[in-house]
Design brief:
With 812 residues, the protein is of the alpha/beta class. It contains 25 helices and 36 strands. Among the domains are: 169 residues, FAD/NAD(P)-binding domain, CATH 3.50.50.60; 117 residues, FAD/NAD(P)-binding domain, CATH 3.50.50; 57 residues, no CATH class; 154 residues, Sulfite Reductase Hemoprotein, domain 1, CATH 3.30.413.10. The protein has a five-stranded parallel sheet with strand order 3-2-1-7-19, with no helix packed on it. Helix 15 packs across helix 17 and helix 21 runs parallel beside helix 22. The longest helix is centred in the last third of the chain and has 18 residues. It is elongated. The termini are far apart.
Length: 812
């Protein structure tokens, strides 16, 4: 079948990223032609500043070499600027006469620098700072001339000034606004930045307005800058860094509607011609033309899905953050960091230490942040801002960062180690910690360049480079091997947990003996380590077919009670969602008196623990109490901790108690690789401590937030945010699907936190969030497994409970 023709005008980062995304999902759909005005392949424009500063070479910032175009069958026209678009004939024509026909056209012409309309702007030595040619011109000028003036104290201007200073020039930055980087920093942070840069050797004229650029004595080159107040300063080189404008000249000549850019809809199609798309700095979406790389890449991903004819995805705009490295100074800003009516501010200012932080709150939510000098928590603040989470419960500690919120247990760890797998490391490319660590492990990566190549993390603005290097160090450190040895299940075999699970599934093994025989155990009967694992793998893989072997369980699960150090047992009856009744409490009290149980204690999971029960009294205690087994002794669902929620609490947004009871009733007989605990909080105040549970559910105004793989044990692990859900039915399905995935893939005695760390949060998301049919199938398999599962305290025969164990030694 004849391919459609796709033409890309503009060989920059946004357009080529769109092609990369398109080639991933529809590699054979189009014959692709690319026109690039520059004579270079696609390169990282953001890294021009390190090239100017002498920290990198032009070759090092190339993103897609010429081989990439050839390997993907792309026709590339370099150094050819498209002059016209004929929308009737659907053909583009370059200024040298080269033509290309299109079925779909993608415009990514980027932006053009704003050049001040002052006398002398056309003199030799007056340049903008936008591309490789500009960068090379500055490098050449630094070898011949002494005085440089940079007009514009924004990010680009400061980076240009720093690079020229490092190449030996005396540099003055002229900025008309009251402080530097006024779009990213407030005045206090701007003043700190200026002082720090002055200490490094830069000079500043703040509030100065350029009147004219004056020629040198020979008359052909710039020689000075004159200001409105009549003062002049020498200038052998003038760099215009006073802003950018969307490059819409070509689009306007083709009759496309332009207003603050080429106007596009949520599918990135131009509103004038649906065959023509626009992405990047030239596009105006909902009145905004974005200049940061992360939104441009988000546009590219959506645009690619529509070019691929998938018809899915909408670009609805981007919340942007700026995380910058300016001459070794850390800066971060996001949202409304200037404040305004209805907002309040929390400020930490330490001018001597070079640290300034301002957090802006509105309606109990973080709406803006401005950080200078210490940006380690920038990504966490941005997550709070993006999620719209209420922060009243952490307000007193909010300024001091993520590691001070709750018992996170991050002290002594570097930032990378403290991050959750789902946390974003590279904002430009949307790369998470889990994705980076998985790539390092799976592909045996050892260098920063390798990580950039495989994940694109740190490959754009470079502000996350330090974080990526930390991940590389602790993931591929001294203990890492390119081909790690497989850990055997136990000393009876060389087979791993994964090998055993695979054999049971592939060969439909239904008994422990069949596993031992098929896989060639060294010991014919196994041991106390492998038999419980084999028993669990069998009954979780083939429910209702493989038969539970009680003698291959640990003592607690054989006796269905927790053995204590004096040989007695504890009994913890199940209380649905932590809720009980007067009748249940009376029966518990009567049993305590009748069987002389010495200790009664309320557990951390909102249940009552009867400690010191004699083994021979266990069946009678269970019978007299008349409540279901709490499975507190088992590798199973133990508790579902709840708060009182909206039924009673004035802060409650959802009925957490009922949700907890529904979850517990749906899954209370669920055996798992290890113990499992849930919690449901009725509002973001999170009184039920849902953030450190295997599954945590938190009520919010719009429904529920789901967190997974937390652990409140010997090493506290904060759960990962997983998804937002609207209905209680969705909470049941998603929770059940996650638990079943853990049951099917987890290794015996592996907690959910270690399971998710092993397989990666992205894997779990793919199986549950991205695969609706697979999620429903997991939920259905769990329901099938639990259907008819007996209560071991009351259905002795069905649960295969050996009642002889409860008879005292010597009894008849």
């Amino acid at each position: 079948m004849k391919k459609s023709r796709l033409v890309l005008i503009g060989n920059g980062m946004a357009g080529v990223r769109t092609l990369e995304e398109l080639l991933k999902i529809a590699p054979d759909l189009y014959d692709i032609t690319v026109f690039g005005a520059e004579p270079h392949p696609n390169y990282n424009r953001i890294l021009l500043s390190p090239v100017l500063a002498g920290e990198q070479t032009l070759e090092q910032i190339v993103l897609n070499p010429l081989d990439w175009y050839r390997d993907n069958g792309i026709t590339l026209h370099l150094g050819k600027r498209v002059a016209t678009i004929d929308r009737v004939r659907r053909v583009v024509r370059a200024d040298d006469g080269t033509e290309a026909h299109y079925d779909r056209l993608l415009i990514a012409t980027g932006s053009v620098p704003f050049v001040l309309p002052v006398p002398g702007k056309d003199l030799t030595g007056v340049i903008a700072y936008r591309d490789i040619a500009d960068t090379q011109a500055m490098i050449d000028a630094a070898t011949k001339y002494r005085h440089a003036v940079v007009i514009g104290g924004g990010l680009l201007g400061l980076e240009a000034a720093n690079g020229l200073m490092l190449r030996g020039m005396q540099v003055t930055v002229v900025h008309i606004a009251p402080w530097l980087m006024e779009r990213q920093l407030d005045d206090a942070a701007g003043q700190l930045l200026q002082k720090s840069l002055e200490d490094r050797g830069l000079k500043f004229l703040i509030g100065a307005q350029t009147q004219a650029l004056l020629p040198d004595a020979a008359g052909g080159r710039v020689g000075a800058v004159r200001f409105q107040d009549g003062t002049e300063i020498p200038a052998d080189l003038v760099v215009m860094a006073a802003g950018i404008r969307p490059n819409t000249t070509l689009a306007e000549s083709a009759g496309l509607h332009c207003h603050r850019g080429i106007v596009v809809n949520d599918t990135l199609q131009t509103i004038t011609d649906p065959r023509i798309y626009a992405v990047g700095e030239c596009a105006a979406h909902r009145g905004i033309a974005y200049g940061l790389v992360a939104p441009l890449f988000e546009q590219g991903k959506v645009c690619a899905t529509h070019l691929a004819q998938f018809g899915i995805g909408r670009y609805t705009g981007s919340q942007t953050s700026t995380k910058l490295k300016v001459t070794g100074i850390d800066l971060f800003s996001a949202g409304n960091f200037t404040g305004g009516p209805g907002t309040e501010q929390i400020v930490l200012s330490d001018p001597v230490g070079g640290v300034y932080k301002k957090l802006v709150l509105q309606d109990d939510r973080l709406v803006g942040a401005c950080l200078y000098g210490d940006t380690v928590d920038g990504s966490w603040y941005f997550k709070l801002l993006r999620d719209g989470r209420k922060v009243a419960d952490i307000r007193d500690k909010l300024m001091f960062g993520e590691s001070n919120i709750g018992d996170v247990g991050h002290q002594g760890h570097n930032k990378a180690a403290a991050m959750a797998d789902g946390d974003e490391v590279c904002g430009c490319n949307g790369v998470t910690k889990g994705s980076i660590c998985k790539a390092i492990k799976d592909k045996g990566l050892f260098t920063l360049d390798e990580v950039r190549k495989h994940t694109k993390a740190s490959a754009s603005c470079g502000s996350c480079t330090g974080l990526v290097e930390q991940l590389l160090m602790f993931t591929a450190g001294g203990d890492y091997s390119a081909a790690p040895k497989k850990k055997a299940l136990c000393g009876c075999t060389d087979a791993s947990h994964a090998d055993v699970r695979q054999a049971i599934r592939e060969h439909k093994l239904l008994t422990i003996d069949s596993v031992i025989g098929t896989m060639g155990w060294r010991t014919p009967n196994g041991c106390a380590s492998c038999r419980p694992a084999l028993n669990y793998y069998l009954i979780s893989t083939w429910p209702k077919e493989a038969q539970d072997d009680p003698q291959s369980r640990f003592i607690n699960e054989r006796a269905h009670g927790n053995i204590q150090k004096d040989g007695t047992y504890s009994v913890i009856p199940r209380m649905w969602g932590g809720e009980t009744t007067a009748d249940e409490l009376r029966r518990i009290a009567d049993a305590v008196d009748k069987y002389k149980i010495p200790t009664v204690k309320v557990t951390g999971g909102q249940r009552i623990d009867l400690l010191g029960v004699k083994k021979e009294d266990l069946p009678a205690v269970w019978k007299d109490i008349g409540m279901p087994s709490g499975h507190a002794y088992a590798k199973a669902l133990r508790t579902v901790k709840t708060c009182v929620g909206s039924e009673w609490c004035r802060f409650g947004t959802q009925d957490s108690t009922q949700m907890g009871k529904d979850l517990e009733r749906a899954m209370w007989r669920m055996y798992a690789p290890h113990k499992v605990k849930f919690a449901v909080s009725g509002c973001p105040r999170n009184c039920a401590e849902a953030g450190i549970k295997d599954v945590g559910i938190i009520g919010v105004d719009s429904g529920w937030e789901m967190y997974i793989a937390g652990n409140g044990g010997i090493k506290t692990e904060v759960a990962h945010f997983f998804t937002k859900l609207k209905t209680p039915e969705e909470v049941l399905e998603y929770t059940g699907a996650f638990c079943q995935l853990y049951r099917e893939e987890g290794w015996y005695l592996e907690r959910t936190v270690h399971y998710v760390n092993r397989v990666g949060l992205d894997h779990v998301k793919r199986r549950i969030l991205d695969d609706a049919a697979g999620r429903k199938a997991l939920w259905e398999r769990l329901q099938y497994s639990l259907d008819g599962e007996p209560d071991p305290w009351f259905e002795f025969d069905k649960a295969r409970v050996d009642v002889r164990q409860f008879q005292p030694v010597g009894a008849a």
